[in-house]
Amino acid sequence: MKLAERLSRLGTETAFAVSAQAAAWAAQGHKVYPFHLGDINLPTPENIIAAAEKAIRDGHTGYCPGIGITPLREILAEDTGKRRGVRYGAENVAIQPGGKPVIGKFISSVMNPGDEVLYPNPGYPIYESQIEFQGGVAVPYDYDETEDGFAINLERLEASITDKTRVLIYNNYQNPISAESSAAEMAALAQLAVQHDLWVLSDEAYYEIRYGGKSRSIVALPGMQERTVILYTFSKKFAMTGWRLGAAIGPEEIIQVISKLNTNIESCSNHFIQWAMVEGLTGDPSGPENILAELKRRRDAAVNGLNAIEGINVALPNSTFYLFPNVTKIMRRKGLTDVDRLKDLALEHTGVSFCTRNHFGRALPGETEAFIRLAYSGISVSDIEEGLSKLKAYFDSDEQ
After folding, report:
1. What is the CATH number of the domain that holds 86?
2. Within a domain: residue 134?
3. Count of CB atoms situated within 10 Å of the CB of 207
4. Which of 23, 79, 100, 179 is the most exposed place for a label (fewest CB within 10 A)?
5. Is the model's pTM score more than 0.90?
6. Is there a contact between 308 and 355 (Cβ–Cβ < 8 Å)?
7. In the chain, what percentage of residues exceed pLDDT 90?
8. pLDDT digits (tens, 9 = 90+) for 42-68
9. Are 331 and 347 part of one and the same domain?
10. Position 56 in a domain
């Protein structure tokens, strides 16, 4: 019996493979310092937990509208629009079982087989996976490393646009590299989208994981709100990665299509969690504030620990909970050519577990630098300091 041919084009999120490797190492009795997965080991705010329990007791355990319950859609539309300087209504919101489903449903809604889709690389690997699985042509755009972090190479991005290009996927406050667009960079992307009449998926999962300054959304720029769908997730701000709730927010015409896909794929998102999130968006804000404050402490510890290592220099990011250091000099010092081998050796020598550039899209032709990604959302400050001290001792040595 043969399986569908398109399955050969389906990728995965390989960070979970690193998680399994770390778990196997821990099962042998070793201490592991988990920098590999962007999970959050902080509790969901108590008022949200209480609201979920109340919703269950109140009987919100059956089906609800596939597009989501109206009170949550209304509140989320108002909150999202206010934070981005635009206006949304409930008709612009389709609730999802997490942020990730927005990617596949958006692509299903706007891309035909053979269409070209621009996507960030390095970037979240599900972009590449869903484009190719659904018969599109995945066209990567890349970043240049700067003293302040990473910037999109706009010249190469523009050169890759053809008459078959239909979609731009844009992840400001980016996973894995924590890149943040300047106002000029965002404006240039918007201009290209309007000029070439592109649909845009604005992945804003980390929009509110913000340590300094103010987040901006491309939807606020001229001509963008009517062509852009926002990927929204409750997972980060409220430490709810396992609760699985998110939303697609955008033009009503595409939200209605995504709602129809909801009905076909999962009927509806979890009913009582939606009621809990009404409380999350309207109730005590101290829970998310405390989560953000702790993530900031972890960011500072991780940046300091990495910058203490000879050959590493990472900028202090204003958003996300990822760091993407260049380890090319360390690779040369250790005589290595495979960054995944460095990952394995670091785990064995220090217990520090991290992902590499190879977990975030296929390497592009001509790449010569080596990078690793560390997530600091699932590890305490004391373990960050202890683990990176061990990593420093190993990276600073000539030991393989």
Report:
1. 3.40.640.10
2. yes
3. 24
4. 23
5. yes
6. no
7. 91
8. 999 999 999 999 999 999 999 999 999
9. yes
10. no
Q: For 6-16, how does the pLDDT look when each residue is reduced to its tens digit (9 = 90+)?
A: 988 988 777 77
| Per-residue confidence (pLDDT) for residue 340, from 0 to 100 | 94
- CA distances, 370 to each of 68, 96, 216, 266, 388 (Å): 43, 36, 30, 40, 19
- Give every residue of the chain whose pLDDT is below 50, as ranges: none
